[in-house]
Structure formats: C-alpha cells, structure tokens
C-alpha cells in the first residue's frame, strides 16, 4: 500500500470533521420527512410536515425570493458602476476608491444587529417605510453590495479588459459606449459570480432581518427561527429541508461558475 | 506631470468616473453611515449620557457578558485554526476518490444563516440529538448540551471551520514543496518541518481568517438566538436590552461597542497580514 499510517490518521480526522459538518444536514433533512422523529425512522416517512410548513410558511418563501431578486437588481444596478469607478478613477489607483471599498465592507464586518438597530433608530419613525418590505430590502442591499462589487472589480482589474477599453477609446468610443459595449459584456462572469452570492446571502440573511421584520414582512430565515421556537422538531426540520432545497442548488451553481470561469475570483 | 492619455479622453474630465459610484455611495451614506451616526448619538442619550459607552466596563452584568463573548470567540478561533489547518493541509496535498464532492459539501455551511447553524447543533446535541443517542447507547447517559455554552461553542465552530479550511487550502497551494523537501533531507522531523516551514508560510492566511472567525463569533446573533436560553453573550444582551426592556440608548451603546470591537480586530489583522478581510455569517 502506498499510503502511510499517517495518511490514514489524517484522513480519519478529516472525515470526522466533514461528518461534523454534513451529518446534521442529512439528519435534519431526514427528520423533516419522518413521521415521528422521537420514535425514529421505524415510524415511517411522510410528507405531512412538509405540507404543514407549506401551508404555514409559504408566504415567507415567496417573500424571500422576491427580496432576493430585488436585492440582486439593486446591487447590480448600483454595484457594477461602482466597481467600474473603483477600477478606473485616477487609473485605478486613487485613495478615494480605497476608502470607498473599505467603507463598503463595514456592514459585513460590523454585526448585523448594529446595522439593524441603526436603521431602526434613524428611519423607524416613518411608519409606512418601517412596515414595508423596502426596509428589509435596504438591510439586505447594504449587506450584499460588497459581494457584487468585489468579483466584478476583480474581473475589471484583469489587464485584458483595460487593453480592450484602450483600443475602443482609440477608435473614438465614448465612456458610455465603452461601459455598455465593452465592460458589461466582459465582466459578465464576475456579475454572475456576484449575483449567485447576493441571492444566496439575501435568502439566508437573518441577523439584520430579524430586527427589521414585522409580522407582515417575515422572511424565510425569520420563519425558520419562528418554527424552531414554536413548532415540533419535525416541522422545523421540514422547513429547514425546504431551505436546503432552495439554497444548495445555488451553492453548487456558485462552485460551478468559479470553476468554469477560472477567473481567480475569491469571494 | 505626464499622464497616460487614454484615461483622460472624455471631455467631462477625470472626475467623470465618480458619477458611476454615485448610486452605490448614496445608498451607503443614506442607509448605513448616517444611521450609524444616529446610533452613536442615541447611545449617548440615555440617563448616563456618553458614559453609557463605558458601561461595558463599569457595569458588572455587561462586563461579564462582554468577557464571556470574547473568551468564547477566542476559544472558537483557536480550535477552528487548529482543526482547519490539519484538514486544509491534508485536503490540499492528497488526492482520493470523492474529494471534489467532499470539498463541495464542506463549503455549504458557509451560506447557512445563524439560526440554521443553531438548529444543526440541536440536531447534534439537542434533546433528541445524535450525540445524546450515541452516548446513551454507549454509556447509558445521554449528553445534551446544545442549549449551554458547549452548544454555542459547537455552533460557532460549525460556521467557522469551512471558512478557514478554504483559506488554508488557498494559502497551502502557494507553498513551495522544495523547502519542505530540503528540511526533511536535512533530517528535520515532520513536526519540526511543520513548525519551521509550513506554519510561518501559512501565518498571514491564518491571522486574517482567524480574525474573521473571531469577529463573526463575537457578532453572531442567530446561533445564540436559537440555542441560548440562558447564555448571556453580548449580542443577546443587546437584543434583550432592546426588545425586553426597551432600553434603546443602552442597546445602541452596546452595539456600537460590539461593532467597534469586531471592526478593530479585522483592521488589526489586516494591517498585520496585508490581506483583505471580509466576514459573512
């Protein structure tokens, strides 16, 4: 055998750590379709709990998808031009650009609870606004914007793009023409990577959303917390199962995109 | 001063690029920076004024909860770095069947919200959890620790490990195998090679990902919210202050302290390791 004893020891440890991460996922997915989890799988499998979740929490799922898509629209519309400025202002080497980049990361670095409290203190008195989905959308946009800007910026900074732009400029293309005709089509892989990240994070965002939500603007993760606190373990599991079914394809797509483009984009 | 000409072609001048940043920057200023300033102001508006910011040091309750949060996060960070270095190095250096699938699954927890991580811990160590079932079968005594400090530790470990594994793997990719080869040929044992060659090379990556892991744990709210019925970590203290006691100024002051702490840790780590750091949980 070509592997040493040390190899197997390390392999065993690695597998143990992987089991720690993966077994609970499998367990909760199974619990969601088990008739009675306390009795065990011998009690049989059922879709009853999934149906119950669908009846109780269906609205939160649609709401989360709507917010995620709106969040994607806003972060794309604001983030892609912003990345362009960061890449090009003063030839891509300006202090202002670095300050902006640094500031943008703040809502990610600082706990969501603080961001949420700040939003409530500043805008909470506008009742209509406070009670609307827009309030939550803003929290999500703040949190996900850097995840759109960074991959797009990384692609923009690749030398190939600046050469293409230079060529276009020498042929007389204006700024707008260059941005829409050259930059956007060429940074598509970055936008795609950012988009998958934004949607995934928005669907799963809890820390900010929990503080911002009202009973009428409950999102999927808020519903999850609600079901964990008040429902049977099977119902919580079934709801988690639905969450996994939504989020895991996104994660696999994300890995596939980063592999396929090989653009050295680190998220 | 001579400038490269293609950047200044447009008649609008060199500030034209700022226009592109306008929507994003406006959003940020209006909905993050301005509210944050307001939060700072509210924090100083309570009965004790600006002294509220010192309450985390002077008030026993808040001080204990701050210390608990910092100690727990430090312990999690240390454990995560050790576990993830071992696993990350192993995964980077060995090929075996199913590795790609394993790696893909390892990254899933990265995108799970804190509440789901909390639920995963309940699945493992809760009243009907796996660990309880196994220990009951082995020793006739079910270990249930999901709702205690141990459960919180497990939860923070759960969302920290994947993040650090990925960073270690990326850093290990750049390690020069010739250096280790040379050390080995000179008679260094594996431990010596690890301590003198591998660890220093990985240090910047470990510092930056460790800082993210620490900051994320300090600010993690969802996991604590799902698990902790009676563990008073700082985010829970803030939440209780805000919702149960409607003590807005204290909640504001504490969240500013919490935010400043995490930001400081990340900034320090970055200036040390020269790496861009971003956290998400």
Task: Kindly summarize this structure in a few lines.
The complex is a heterodimer of chains A (267) and B (281). Chain A has 267 residues and is mostly helical.
Name a few traits of the molecule.
heterodimer, A: 267 residues, mainly alpha, two-stranded antiparallel sheet, 12 helices, disordered C terminus, B: 281 residues, MetI-like fold, globular, disordered N terminus
Oligomeric grouping of the chains: heterodimer
**Gyration radius from CA atoms of chain B, angstroms:** 23 Å
Strand order of the largest sheet of chain A: 1-2
Low-confidence stretches of chain A: 263-267
Structure in words:
The complex is a heterodimer of chains A (267) and B (281). Chain A is built from 12 helices and 2 strands. By secondary structure, chain A is mainly alpha-helical. In chain A, helix 3 crosses helix 6 and helix 6 runs antiparallel to helix 9. By secondary structure, chain B is an all-alpha fold. In chain B, 72% of the residues lie in helices and 0% in strands. Classes of the chains: A mainly alpha (267), B mainly alpha (281). At the A-B interface, helix 1, helix 2, helix 3, helix 4 and helix 6 of A face helix 1, helix 3, helix 4, helix 5 and helix 7 of B.
Secondary-structure map:
The complex is a heterodimer of chains A (267) and B (281).
Chain A: H1 5-31, E1 34-36, E2 40-45, H2 48-88, H3 95-109, H4 112-123, H5 127-130, H6 133-156, H7 159-170, H8 175-186, H9 188-204, H10 207-212, H11 220-230, H12 233-261
Antiparallel strand pairs in A: 1-2
Helix pairs in contact in A: 1-12, 2-6, 2-9, 2-11, 2-12, 3-6, 6-9, 7-8, 9-12, 11-12
Chain B: H1 16-43, H2 55-58, H3 60-93, H4 99-107, H5 114-125, H6 130-139, H7 149-173, H8 177-185, H9 190-219, H10 222-227, H11 234-243, H12 248-273
Helix pairs in contact in B: 1-12, 3-7, 3-9, 5-7, 7-9, 8-9, 9-12, 11-12
Pfam families (chain B): BPD_transp_1 (PF00528)
Membrane topology (chain B): Multi-pass membrane protein
Subcellular location (chain B): Cell membrane
């Amino acid at each position: 055998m070509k592997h040493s004893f040390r190899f197997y020891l390390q392999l065993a440890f690695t597998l143990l750590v992987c089991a720690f991460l993966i077994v609970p996922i499998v367990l909760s997915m199974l619990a969601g379709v088990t008739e009675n989890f306390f009795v065990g799988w011998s009690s049989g499998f059922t879709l009853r709990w999934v149906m119950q979740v669908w009846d109780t929490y269906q609205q939160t799922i649609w709401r989360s998808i709507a917010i995620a898509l709106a969040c994607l629209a806003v972060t794309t519309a604001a983030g892609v031009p912003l990345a362009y400025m960061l890449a090009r202002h003063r030839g891509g080497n300006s202090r202002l650009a670095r300050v902006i980049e640094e500031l943008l990361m703040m809502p990610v670095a600082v706990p969501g609870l603080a961001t949420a409290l700040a939003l409530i203190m500043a805008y909470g008195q506008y009742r209509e606004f406070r009670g609307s989905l827009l309030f939550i959308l803003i929290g999500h946009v703040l949190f996900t914007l850097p995840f759109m800007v960074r991959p797009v910026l990384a692609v923009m900074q690749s030398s190939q793009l600046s050469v293409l732009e230079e060529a276009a400029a020498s042929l007389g293309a204006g700024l707008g023409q260059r941005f829409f005709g050259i930059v956007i089509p060429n940074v598509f892989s970055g936008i795609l990577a950012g988009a998958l990240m934004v949607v995934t994070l928005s669907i799963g965002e809890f820390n900010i959303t929990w503080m911002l939500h009202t009973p009428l603007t409950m999102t999927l993760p808020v519903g999850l917390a609600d079901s964990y606190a008040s429902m049977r373990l099977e119902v919580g599991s079934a709801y988690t199962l639905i969450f996994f079914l939504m989020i895991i394809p996104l994660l696999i797509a994300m890995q596939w995109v980063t592999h396929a483009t090989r653009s050295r984009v680190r998220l | 001063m001579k400038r490269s000409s293609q950047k200044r072609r447009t008649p609008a001048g060199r500030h034209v690029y700022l226009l592109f940043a306008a929507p994003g920057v406006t959003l940020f200023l209006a909905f993050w920076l301005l509210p944050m300033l307001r939060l700072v102001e509210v924090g100083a508006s309570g009965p004790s004024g600006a002294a509220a910011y010192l309450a985390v040091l002077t008030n026993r309750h808040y001080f204990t909860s701050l210390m608990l949060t910092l100690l727990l996060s430090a312990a999690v960070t240390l454990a995560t770095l050790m576990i993830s270095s071992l696993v990350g190095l192993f995964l980077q250096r060995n090929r075996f069947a199913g590795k790609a699938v394993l790696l893909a699954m390892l990254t899933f927890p990265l995108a799970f919200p804190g509440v789901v991580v909390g639920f995963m811990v309940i699945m493992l160590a809760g009243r009907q959890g796996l660990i309880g079932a196994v220990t009951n079968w082995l020793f006739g005594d079910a270990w249930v620790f999901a709702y205690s400090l141990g459960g919180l530790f497990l939860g923070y470990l759960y969302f920290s490990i994947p993040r650090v594994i990925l960073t270690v793997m990326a850093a290990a990719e750049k390690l020069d195998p010739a250096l280790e080869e040379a050390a080995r040929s000179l008679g260094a044992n594996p431990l010596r090679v690890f301590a003198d060659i591998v660890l220093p090379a990985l240090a910047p990556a470990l510092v930056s990902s460790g800082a993210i892991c620490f900051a994320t744990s300090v600010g993690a709210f969802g996991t604590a919210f799902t698990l902790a019925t009676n563990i008073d970590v700082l985010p829970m203290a803030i939440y209780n202050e805000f919702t149960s006691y409607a003590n807005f100024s204290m909640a504001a002051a504490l969240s500013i302290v919490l935010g400043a702490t995490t930001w400081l840790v990340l900034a320090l780590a970055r200036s040390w390791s020269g790496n861009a750091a971003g956290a998400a949980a």
